[in-house]
Amino acid sequence: MQNERGIVLGIETSCDETAAACVARGRNMLSSVVSSQIEVHRKFGGVVPEIASRRHVEAIIPVIDQALNEAEVTLAGIDAVAVTYGPGLVGALLVGLAAAKGLAFAADIPLVCVNHIEGHIYANFLAHAELDPPVLCLTVSGGHTELVAMHGHGRYEVLGRTRDDAAGEAFDKVARVMGLPYPGGPALENLARSGDPNAIEFPRARVEGRPLDFSFSGLKTAVINYLHTSEQKGARIDYPDVAAGFQRAAVDELVSRIGPCVRATGIRKLAVSGGVAANGALRAALGGLVAELGIEVFCPPLPLCTDNAAMIASAGYYGLAGGRMSGLDANAVPGARLEDVSSEGYGSLS
Q: What's the whole-number mean pLDDT along residues 53-68?
């Protein structure tokens, strides 16, 4: 690190949030700026990739400037630029990458490309100063559902992942069929609060031969079929009960994999991240595992659950400290996997 403060500028544009942040030594968040596109995409009921890319182009420089100003640093005081390279929407990713490359070249500082899922994991390192590997990581968002054993910085073992829909995607799709506004996940959770989670029993899935993998497509389809069948019969639909029953089934799916992971790895720290980590029912269910399994559960504050650049800067700091750097020819990888993150060269973080 060039400067004693070890400041990394993070940039995140994988979907529909344009974000920049400055983080010192991987843990101290100096600024975090997020420009959301929710209102833009609400009329379409979901993210439109082309519109998202254009909005990123408009917002990226003002957001970076604001992040630097709020952190009270200039580009000369930055040690590195960290940026999301994937997974995500290719057009959106390219906007962030282009900005990060330009800044790294202009300031003659390292560029560190960060996997978006890795970034979500590091949201908990920002929020919990005492957290260190090894740790089990459950990342649950609109695009991803993965159970990961983090054995050290840059050392990831994917234990299970969804085979079809991500959990957050299932929330959003069910919410859309129920006529709830975008974004559907929070709206469905709010509706479920007035419903009976035991009134309607929806199925839980198991993936043959891969007991730690997830599948939410069947659950989503079962809820949609229930709604369509009830409508065709002219039966009254209790929408809060439907929402509560679906949410209970989805949360059960997520929580049921934790015990086997703890027993298989011996790791007794669980860090939860991603947009669905903000869900109150999931947090309550995971809290119940503390005594049952003898584990510690860590959740980030709500602003760090959704996409942000502080988590990218934190991951970038640890990557750079361990010797990971990217060339200016780095490209977006919309289908990037966490297994592809290089673990070579990770050494002292002093």
A: 97
For the domain spanning 133-300, the CATH number is: 3.30.420.40
Q: Any idea which fold 7-126+304-340 has?
A: Nucleotidyltransferase; domain 5 (3.30.420)
Q: Would you say how long the chain is, in residues?
A: 350
Return the minimum-mean-pLDDT range out of 55-69, 253-267, 333-347.
Answer: 333-347
63 close to 33: Cβ distance less than 8 angstroms: yes
Element (H, E) at 67: helix 49-71
Give the separation between CA 35 and CA 62, rounded to whole angstroms.
10
Query: DSSP of 209-228, one letter per residue?
Result: T-TT-B--HHHHHHHHHHHH
d(C-alpha 282, C-alpha 143), whole Å: 17
Q: Where are the domains of the chain?
A: 7-126+304-340, 133-300
The pLDDT assigned to 43 comes to 86
What's the pTM value of the predicted model, to 2 decimals?
0.93
